[in-house]
Amino acid sequence: MKVENHAMVGVPVAVGIFYVSHSWLFFWVAILVGIFIDGDHVFDYIREEKKFNFRHLFIKSYKGDFKKIVLIGHAYEWIALAWIIGLFFKESSLPLVFTIAYLFHMIPDQIANNIKPWGYFITYRWLKKWKMSEIFYPPKPGRVKAVMEMEKKHAKAHKKS
């Protein structure tokens, strides 16, 4: 899912959490968890390409063109870890905020992306040796066509520079 779509979901969730809790901390946790988890895509891109190009990151992502994909932030196991930490500190509000914001990020990703049912479990990705072809279904033809158009525009923009 695109960042702007996550923002359209994540900001109202964060506002709702603030409305109920009156906590700026919980508001910002919800924003970070609900929107900025996608920073892990940058890690995967740099790991594989050994450079960073913001536009190409999106093209590569939408084409499903990674050989291996870690997506360290996209793992349902983080919910369990949040609750374990919460139990250790005898705190349940923060794990609850984390869980709500996290699920409002992950469930739309699970629906919108071509990921296999267990693909957002890091243990599953580890068992599949991080191979993107084992974790995601191939991109839909219409999506590939749209990405190819993006690539053409990207190539033309680079020729002009």
Main features:
161 residues, mainly alpha, 9 helices
What does this structure look like?
- The protein is mainly alpha-helical and about 160 residues long.
- The chain has one domain (about 5-160).
- About 70% of the residues lie in helices and about 0% in strands.
- The longest helix is centred in the middle third of the chain and has 20 residues, at about 95-110.
- It is globular, with a radius of gyration of 17 Å.
- The chain starts with a helix and ends with a helix.
- The relative contact order is 0.14.
Report the β-strand fraction as a percent range: under 5%
Biggest pleated-sheet summary: none
Number of domains: 1
Amino-to-carboxy terminus distance: 30 Å
Overall pLDDT confidence: 90
Order of helices and strands, N to C?
HHHHHHHHH
Low-confidence stretches: none
Any idea what the shape is? globular
Structural class: mainly alpha
What level of helicity do the residues show?
over 70%
Radius of gyration based on Cα positions? 17 Å
Q: How many helical stretches?
A: 9
According to DSSP, the number of beta strands is 0
Describe the SSE topology.
Elements: H1 3-21, H2 24-35, H3 40-49, H4 54-63, H5 77-88, H6 93-112, H7 122-127, H8 132-135, H9 141-160
